[in-house]
Design goal:
The structure holds three protein chains of three kinds. By secondary structure, chain A is mainly alpha-helical. Helices cover 74% and strands 3% of the residues of chain A. Chain A starts with a helix and ends in an 11-residue tail after the last helix. The relative contact order of chain A is 0.22. In chain B, strands 7-6-8-9-10-11-12 form a seven-stranded mixed β-sheet, sandwiched between helices. By secondary structure, chain B is an alpha/beta fold.
Amino acid sequence: MPLDVYLNVAVGGVLTGLVYGLMALGLSVIFGVVRVVNFAHGEMMTIAMYIAVVLFSALHVDPLVLLVPIAAVLFAFGYVLQAALINPFVRRPEHTQFLLLVALALIISNALLIVFGPDARAVQTSYALDSMQFGPVIVDTAKVYAGAAAIIVTAALFGFFRFTLVGKAIRACADNYTGALVVGLDVKRLYALTFGLGTACVGAAGTMAVLIIDTTPMLGPGYTLLAFVIVITGGLGSMPGALVGGVLIGVTEAIAGLLFTPSAKSMFAFGILVLVLLFRPQGLLGRRAA
Amino acid sequence: MTRKSEPQSARISRRSFVAGGVGVGFIAGTAPFNIVRADTGPLKVGVLLPRSGYEAGIGQDCQRGVDIAPAIFKSKGLPELTILSGDTESNVDVARSRAEKLIGDGAQALVGSFDSGQSAAIAQVAEQKGIPLVINIAAAPAITEQGYKFVFRNFPTAPMILRDAFTDQKTVFGLVGAAPKSVVFMHVNDTFGTAMAKGIGAVMPKFNMPYTIAEEISYDPAARDLSVEVAKAKAANADALLVVSRLNDAMLLTRELVKQRWTPQAILSMGPGFYEDQYIKTLGKYANGPISFSPWYDPHKPLTAVLETELAKAHPGVNLNTNHVFTFEALLVVADAYKRAGSTDPKALADAIRATNITDNVAIGPGISFDAKGQNVKVRQGAFQNRDGKLVTVAPPEAATAKPEWPLQPYPSRS
Amino acid sequence: MIGRFTAGVAPRGALLLALLFAALAAAPWFVNDYLLTVLIIILYFAYAGQAWNIMMGFAGQLSLGHALYVGLGSYVAATLFVRYGVGPWFGFLAAIPVAAACGGAIGYLAFRFGVAGVYFAILTIAFAEFARIGFDHFDFVNGTSGLFLPVSEHARTDLWRLRGSPTMFYYVILAATVAAFALCHLLMRSRIGYFWLAIREDEEAARAAGIDTFRYKMIAVMVSAAVTSFAGVFYAFFYNNLFPEQVFGISRSIEIILGPIIGGIGTLFGPILGAFVITGLAETLTSLMSAYGIDLPGAKQVFDGVCLLIVIVALPEGVWPPLARRLGVMKEPK
């Protein structure tokens, strides 16, 4: 197969991977700081996708413009969820946390099914069928916008954690819970804030995702799993790791689909997951868990 | 149960409350199922279709064939049927349990269910319970190879579809004076798609087709993004696209073809998807051109005109298609057999269905009759093309109403 | 052995259990076909939940991919039957080593490399998904086209080939559930059971006390997998068709864990009670809805999720332990 086909597919994989990476970033932030395993992650992204679809069909506003409002809505959702429901579970055995979120995931995805029905919904923007050509490479326009937006949001998040006071406080909580308490940080509020940030990431990712794929209610479990694969591969708790993991998985699946039977391409993601879990459980960019 | 002698005996213990609640719930919830099955009145026919799930659009389309039946039956002097609707939810397990439930509710015949996997599961239930099943649409050959005595199919099997598809393709090539030298074959990886893929190996060599299959690409029916698959197809450098797909993937494929700037010489579809109303509405001008090779109505048969009129009354703006025609014909078979049998006994019905011989039908071909395996081996297909929101029949010659357009108009020049 | 079997069992508990068993054994005479099918489904989940409980409740390993073993059991038994005419009981014997080997492989990979807790759960999901996609492409078992077992009219009861009326299937699954219950009871009281309890409560301490945690965790996983595979064999012969998506799917795995979690992880009667509660209530909801003409796909799963949520938040031990204490049948303090 000529090289430009691989290049085309790889570029598509990178762009899609960036969006997935942003979604996984939310998971990484939540787990890295709050130590909660958000098994309802994919479902939260699906909620964001439906909000984007509904607003688009009602107001005809491009999803990229809706990015900030939807992220804000998901932020509020995550904040409230953590403060009200999840907080008591932070110190409980892992499996109860996990199961709490499994229950939430079940409720959310089926509630979406009841409200929106099973049919796929697409967002038909004016550029939905456009593509850009750079030499031999043809790139899907919508994917370019989505990928670019993902990079911008991620950079903003890095900046937040690096340079703002609140961001530093959150990192302190993650590094040393007791120390943070001693120093007088309101850990409970910071946890809720962080969870909200994580879900805001997911909200942003979902808004971009509607440009790339059609929305159905049952997307949740597949994306939750994908987020975990990316985060574990990249390194739980490492933010650059989530992006790197996302791009890696995106490209691997795309190239694998090209080389082998496309219908089996998901198996490669799982293969990578198993290998990482066995041989480098801290992930490619992660540090050994504290 | 043992009585408590402690102070708690005064209060209702939680256990007995829960037990009582569950018991009441059970009885209340299942009371409707304790009714005695009434054997008088019109024949009860259970119609199982995927009304929700990923095949929901097609299931709802098939339902339109059910909606227009009563008026037509009345005008033809056929008996009235009581329709019990079931939703298979595009899921094999649900299909099976719904079939059992409809039979428990008194259905004396079943019709359904568009999907080969679900139809096969329903066929098993029908055979076990001795209730005749008339399959409206399902192409996997295995369903009528089990030696069942209660399962009938008025729809071609995958090898039959392929056989007619290849014949009609050659007719089309002759009419337009051109033929692709190579094709890329894409198919969905589900029961129907794999049955067609397996059938091609056996059937195609007998037809001396002018093209070879340069590449075969199978994809996941639940795939949300077909960019890699289409990239692979484009890289095969074939002239045309031969495809077996469903509705959602037909739309995804076409969108990717536009985005990746590849207009094949033709899209030859041997399955559903490309002729569906939702495909045409959603894609607008980009929907023109694909030729579908599928069981089809004969525009010259009188009953076809009746169906078109009724459909226009009930659902204006909807094109008559395979889903309506074959779902209607399945009910037609049941009504006709009921008239001849004169009884609602499932066994008598099954025998009457076995003796079916209807020549006044809608589909192309000599009519409806079943062989020893319950298969209608005489049903014939047609080829039709998407043209400006309508579907025009281009083959076989006895059913054609227009000449096919060839090649596909390049995507960049449409909009 | 009998002494070990009955030691420490509250007489009231034994009486209630006997009454329940009598009611279940007599059920086919009193209920209609639909209810019988519901009871079969309840007992199926009671059985599968009991098997899952061995791994989670006893050894503390959270498996979210248990559909893998059900699927393996189904496909092994069904393939042997369809292609070679081998009866399901031999099929089960063949499925046991396959399922146990798979469980062992997962256990080995996980425990040797220190994959625990959440990571282990994700690993089990990954393996189940891997199997699902793999079987989708496995032509020997027909892949996505589905593997169909030959059926014939309900008339004859053939226990050897598991062909027959729902009543026959009901007694088979009832017997299996009783057997699983007895097996778990025995295991809990054995040396292995006490080691498992130690590992579950505090693995580090158990290792420090000299218990070979690796060995006992492996045994838990393999026993759980092997016992679960029978559920698969039953599934294959009861439903007569297998599709990888239906059999290995993640929703199947979640369905299996609902019963034991709601009933009470680690308890003996928990999975059974949990299966009755969740399946019974869900089916009641479904029939009530359809009786009123409301058709809402997804409502049942929302209901399941809400029940799960309530139990996790308000009844962390499950429904059975508080109930058992009220009834006075709890043997040891929890």
